[in-house]
Every structure is written in C-alpha cells, then in structure tokens.
Design a protein that fits this description.
The complex is a heterodimer of chains A (about 325) and B (about 280). Chain A has about 325 residues and is mostly helical. Chain A is about 80% helix and about 0% strand. A two-stranded antiparallel ribbon of chain A has the order 1-2. In chain A, a hairpin with a 4-residue loop joins strand 1 and strand 2 (about 80). The longest helix of chain A has about 60 residues, at about 1-65. Chain A is flat. Chain B has twelve helices and no strands. Chain B has helices spanning about 1-50, 50-55, 70-100, 105-115, 120-135, 140-165, 170-175, 180-195, 195-210, 215-220, 235-245, 250-280. The longest helix of chain B has about 45 residues, at about 1-50. In chain B, about 50% of the residues are buried. The chains are: A mainly alpha (about 325), B mainly alpha (about 280). At the A-B interface, helix 1, helix 3, helix 4, helix 5 and helix 7 of A face helix 1, helix 3, helix 4, helix 5 and helix 6 of B.
C-alpha cells in the first residue's frame, strides 16, 4: 500500500517536473520571440537608412556634395540639386512653428488656467481629436478653400500695404497666386496646432499643484504663475513637444504638396511658389523616368531622413529629461 | 509709498489681463481655423456624398461614379497591415515592458521606436519602394500593405508597453507564486489585464494609417477599376483623393471631398471608440 502511494507521488512529482521543464522551454521560446520582435524595430530603422542610401547611391556618385548646394532641377538634362527643396522644407517648417508654437502654448494656457471648468474637457478632447485628422484633409482644404480666399481677399491687400517698406516689400512681392511658400506654411501651422496644444497641455498638467498654489498664496497673478512657475517647470516638455511638431512639419507631405506650387527656384518672396523635399518626391517620384532621376529623389529623401532624425532625436531627449524629472518629483 | 505700491499693483494687474487676453485670443484664433476646416469638410463632403459613392467605380472625367474600388482597396490594405503589424508590435512591446524592462537594449529600442513613430511617412514609402517595388519591378497592393505595416508597428509597440507598465506588479508576483512560468504570467495575466488598452492602441493604429497618402502613392499607385489583385496597382481612398483633387475636373473635386469626409469620419469614429474604451478601463 505504502509502495503504491509512494509510486503515485513519484509519478506526480515527475509530471510536475516535466511540466515545469516544458514551461521553462516554452518560456525561453517566448522570450526569444519577444526579443526578436524588439530587435526587428532596430532592424527596420537600420534597414530604412541602408535602403535609402542604396537607392540614392547613383545620385550620390554622380553629383557628390554639389547636390546639396545646387538649385538645378532639370529632368531633361538629368542635372539635379536639392537646394531649393531643402530651403523650402526648412523655411515652411520654421514659419509654421513661428505661428503654431505661440498659438499652441496660448491654447494650452487657456485650457489649463482660464477656460471655465465645464468647458475644459470638451475643448481639450476636441483638440486631441483634431490632432488625428489625416493631413490630406488639411491639404484639400488649403487647395479648395483657403488658397482661393487668400488669393482674392488677403494677398493683394498685403502686397499693396507693404509696397514701400524695404524688407517686407521683397518678402511679400509678386503676383497673387494664392499658392506658395506662405500658404503652405500657414496650413502646416494649423495642422500641427492641435498637436502642440495637446502635448503642451499634458505637460502643464504635470506641474504639481502645490507649486502653483504656493505662488498664488504669495499673491501672484495668474499670468505670473504661468510665466514664473508653470513655464519654467515644464520647459523641457514644451520644447520637446515643439520639436516633435517640427519633426512632423519637416516631413509633412500632403498638407504641403497641394499648395506649394512645386517650383524648384529659391525666391526671396514668401508669396512665390516653391517646393519641399516631401512635395518634390510626392509630385515627381512615380513619373520619374531614368535611374538618375529616381535616385536623386531618393537622395533628397535621405537628406530629409537625416534632418528629421536629428530633430526627433533632440525631441525625444528633451521629453525623456522631463519624464525622469517628473518621476523624481512624484517619488 | 502707497502710491508706488498702487502703481506696481496696477501694472501687474494690467499685464495679467493683457497676457490672459492674448492667450484667450490665441485659443479663439486656433479654434476658429480648425472649426472652419471642419465646416468646409462637412459642407463640401456631404454635398458630394451619395449612395453611388459606395456602389460605383471611380469614373473617367465628366461621368458619374463613386469610390467603391478605392474604399475596398483601402480597407483591404489597412486590414492586412493591422494583421501583420499587431503581433509584431505586441511582442516587441511585451519585451520592452516585461523581459527587458531595464535592459540597455530596451533603451535603444524605445528611442528608435519613438523616432519611427513620428518619422515622415513619405520616407517609409521610399523605403518600401526600394526594397519591394524596385526588386519586384511592379507597384503592388502588397507593397502598400507592407508600408502601412511599418507605420502600424511603432504605434502598437508604444501603447502595448505603456499599458503593460500600468499592470500592477502584485498581479505578476501572485501568478509567479502559483508556479506559472514567465510566459504564462504574461499571456494569461498581464496581457489580459491590459487588453482594453492594447485594443485601444490597435484602433489608434488603424486611425493613423487610414489617411496615410504618401507611402501608398509611392508603392501602390492607383487603379481606375475594380481590382482584388494585390500583386498589381490597386485603388485606395487617400491616393484617389490626391489624384482627383489635383485634377481640373469639377466632379472629381466633389468625389475628393466626399472621400476626405469618409476618411475623417472613420478616423474620428475610431478615436472616439478608443477613447471610450480607455475611460472604461480607468473606472
């Protein structure tokens, strides 16, 4: 009897050991699987860089550094330079951020400090939802609604108003096409606006309320609390959010392509048509004939890759600093 | 003394009023433009919308037609991308939150993932062009789905990791104390606890890809006809909107607006469902 009992316990134990071993092996397999998936992300990134460099190789070999400094873009003679596209990418993004950052921060201040409480959540949610609207919607709105209106009512008026003012005169001269660098920048800025407001509001919300309350207790006005307490505390986050938005603006394709005019010439006037790297690629890539033409477009893409990588990496570092500090405060 | 104080106080009050008014003005300015965009989208979109949009093919200029083939192509490619991208994103997110939470490798993956998350989508189009379209010598629906997959993965990774990190360690420890191996703890306990959040991430990923135009433009081209052949060019809503809006034909413009409205409604619906799911998790 005792032997039988012992035997059963033995076999049960063996079963258990086998089960644990199975579990262990399954565990190792599962761990490897998740690790492989994580490694795939790094591979995707590396592969993207390698594939772009590979695709751009013909053009890199042919034009060398002059690709970065030449404005030529002639598919017939196969002579390409990306300067106009790079210039357009940078100028539209910088102009867009110049408008969107102050307005976005204004919206965030409004939402966290001024807006009546019952309205805060609905307006906040509306802005977050707007941040998800695809950029092509902004693009066709720009093309069909904004550009004609701008051309008819605003542009001639601005051109007339600045006609005798030295610098502004050059910035805003030229025939009113409606489309151009300025229109593209404006639409870009409206597109990144919800994004900046949403990030900034979230960052403002991380400011501990004790800090704000102490400032109020010392007699600070609302604006002084915002300027001297909220903004300094959340600086890294606001800058990080703005750079994230800049990263989006730099690579944005559809909001820009419709309204920039696709002209490969650098013009002093903001009302003149121009182009950006992404608009050039979107407009010309599928119709590009010949290896050199395609390769040049891919090299332009490679340049965009590096520009946006630097900006986005800085943004991530800024946001990580904020995250670490916020973690430190709560701990 | 009192007079000086009064001057300072009045100055501070005035600057307070001034800057708060400025912030309010900024908010009004921003919200008015966003409202205008929504207004013209809904106005023009609804006037272009009819039953034909869902039942008929994209027309040649000057004729009646709809967007049925484009809607079909968009749905198929998005579904493929979600089915391919979700498992990869889920597993990678699991590695970041469970096995490798504090490892150096995870630091690197997180950093790169966050960059991929906001990398310009046109570059993903070029990437897939070089490795798929150029090697197979044909624009194809498969290439488009691949491009969308690359966009889906980082979104799912980010939300999966965030949601798994919210699962209390007590749950994992309790399961481990019962003798469950790590893999079983993850599959039976943490995934289950974070399910609503992970589903939210997948919905947001669908919302994200449903309006992507640039990557499809470079990898799938378009197609005027009904096609279920993923090995060749296939129609999709965003590319159709792009082509139609760029054309000089009035009736194509109408269809472009209708398509844009459809995409926007889809995106908004998905985000709202995601939001409701998320808030049901919190309560």
């Amino acid at each position: 009897m005792a032997e039988i009992a012992l035997n059963t316990t033995m076999s049960v134990t063996e079963d258990k050991i086998a089960a644990v071993k199975r579990g262990g092996a399954g565990d190792a397999r599962f761990k490897l699987l998740t690790f492989a998936a994580a490694a795939l992300i790094v591979l995707l990134f590396g592969g993207m860089m390698a594939a772009l460099a590979d695709g751009a190789w013909v053009s890199i070999k042919t034009f060398g550094w002059s690709f970065l400094t030449s404005q030529a873009w002639n598919p017939v003679t196969e002579n390409f330079g990306a300067l106009a596209s790079i210039y357009g990418t940078l100028i539209t993004s910088v102009l867009a951020m110049g408008l969107a950052v102050p307005v976005g921060i204004g919206i965030a201040i409004f939402l966290t400090e001024i807006c009546p409480l019952p309205l805060r959540r609905p307006i906040g949610i509306a802005i977050e939802l707007l941040a998800g609207i695809p950029s092509i919607v902004y693009g066709i709105w720009g093309l069909f609604s904004f550009a004609p209106f701008f051309q008819e009512y605003v542009q001639p008026w601005i051109v007339d108003a600045v006609v005798n003012i030295p610098i502004l005169q050059t910035l805003f001269e030229g025939p009113p096409y409606g489309i151009g660098i300025f229109t593209a920048s404006f639409i870009l800025s409206i597109m990144v606006l919800p994004f900046i407001s949403a990030v900034t509001r979230d960052v403002f919300d991380t400011v501990p309320s004790q800090l704000k309350e102490s400032a109020y207790a010392m007699g600070c006005t609302t604006w002084e609390v915002v300027w001297c307490v909220v903004l300094p505390f959340s600086r890294a986050g606001v800058v990080g959010g703005a750079m994230l938005a800049l990263g989006r603006a730099l690579g944005e394709t559809m909001a820009v392509t419709f309204v920039i005019g696709n002209s490969h010439r650098i013009h002093g006037s903001l009302f003149a048509p121009g182009t950006t790297i992404s608009a050039t690629v979107a407009n010309e890539f599928t119709e590009a004939v010949g290896d050199l033409y395609k390769s040049s477009l891919i090299e332009a893409g490679l340049i965009l890759f590096f520009i946006s990588f630097v900006v986005l990496a800085c943004a991530q570092i800024m946001l990580r600093i904020l995250h670490k500090r916020a973690g430190g405060v709560s701990a | 003394m009192i007079a000086i104080n009064k001057r300072i106080y009045n100055g501070r009050k005035r600057s307070n009023a001034f800057f708060l008014a400025l912030s309010t003005l900024a908010a009004v300015f921003g919200i008015v433009w966003l409202a205008l965009i929504l207004y013209s989208l809904f106005y023009n979109g609804f006037s272009g919308l009819s039953l034909k949009v869902f039942t008929e093919m994209t027309p040649p200029p000057g004729q009646d037609g709809g967007l049925a083939n484009a809607i079909f192509g968009s749905v198929v490619m998005s579904l493929l991308a979600v089915f391919a991208g979700t498992p990869i994103g889920l597993l990678a997110g699991t590695y970041l939150a469970e096995y490798g939470r504090y490892s150096k490798m995870s630091e690197v993956v997180r950093f790169i993932n966050d960059i991929l998350l906001s990398a310009p989508s046109i570059l993903i189009g070029l990437f897939i062009y070089v490795i798929v379209v150029a090697t197979t010598h044909t624009f194809s629906g498969w290439a488009g789905a691949a491009a969308l997959t690359v966009i889906v993965i980082p979104v799912v990774v980010r939300t999966t990791e965030n949601m798994l990190l919210l699962v209390p360690n007590g749950l994992r420890e309790a399961a481990a104390a019962l003798g469950a191996p790590r893999a079983m703890v993850i599959k039976a306990v943490t995934w289950r606890a974070a399910r609503a959040g992970i589903v939210t991430g997948v919905l947001l990923a669908i919302a994200r890809i449903s309006g992507e135009t640039a990557p499809l433009l470079l990898t799938v081209l378009s197609n005027q006809f009904w096609s279920t052949h993923l090995g060749g060019p296939i129609a999709s809503l965003p590319v159709m909107i792009f082509n139609f809006a760029m054309s000089p034909y009035e009736d194509w413009h109408k269809l472009a607006w209708a398509g844009a409205l459809l995409i926007t409604i889809a995106v908004l619906t998905l985000s709202i469902i995601a939001r409701v799911l998320e808030s049901s998790r919190k309560h």
